[in-house]
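All the exercises in this workshop are built on plain-text protein records. A record pairs a protein's sequence with a compact description of its fold. The structure tokens are whole numbers drawn from a learned vocabulary of backbone shapes. Once this layout is familiar, the rest of the handout is easier to follow. An example says more than a description, so a record of this kind follows.
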Amino acid sequence: MTLRVVRDWRDLPAADRGAAVAIGAFDGVHRGHQAVIAEARAAAERLGAPLGVVTFDPHPRRWFQPDAAPFALMTEAQLLRALAAEGVEIAYLLPFDAEMAAMTDGAFARRVLAEGLGVRHVAVGFDFTYGKGRSGSPEALTREGEALGFTVSVTPRRDDRDGLKLSSSAVREAVHAGDMARTRAILGRPFAIEGEVIHGDKRGRQIGVPTANVSLGDYMRPAYGVYATRTRLPDGRVIDGVASLGVRPMFKLDQPLLEVWLFDFSGDLYGQTIETELVALLRGEQTFEDLDALKAQIDADARAARAVLAG
């Protein structure tokens, strides 16, 4: 089944209306998000309706705090793939603009959900808020739904085995700490950075370690250091590797960069989009006396990465 992307809530054709939807930011599509989508899926099956997800572009946090530090956990392309994997049929990427930001919770329920999307069911998380000033709550949405003709389900808080909340904030904390095992436990898959391969300073080639370089853009900044990685190429191949992520204190980059050495690979990837999973943090960033010392450490990092990935 092909995922359809709808980028507005006004004047939609009948085929794009009448879904059972999950609503939220869905940054990361972690296991907590997946539980909300599962509630919408159950309603869709019960009602014979399409399964949809309603989210916003840009993320409301970016709208209200345009100068905030990078915080995204995924690109739009990664979001859509994750939603498709959950069986979502319609992804509503609604524009978060001045009109949306000024809309009251009641107006959002009536104009966007009922009149615009014609939803039949809405699934939300227990801490969902909406409307100007985040005045709307799951309880308020339930009341609105009763008046407007759609049902509402509220997914309770989901915790991991240690009692920690499954949330985007928890993912960011784990990624920032370089705890990729915990990150994977919350997401249900490894954290991955996707982007276009750009030209670097070619220093890697000088020491026999050609790398594919990707800018971090609006991704949140993981712990800087060296990671064991798996990279998905445009042709579908998945290549093990080792990557340096950070500002390379030895060379003092202006912006952090992901530099991936793909094992046993040769080819030109410039201008192509690759997705690199950060499987495990091997060590933090270091400064070296010279290129020979750097090369020796990279060789050691590669051996460590191969061992981790083989396990």
Notes: The chain has ten helices and twelve strands. The chain has a mean pLDDT of 93. The two ends are 35 Å apart (CA to CA).
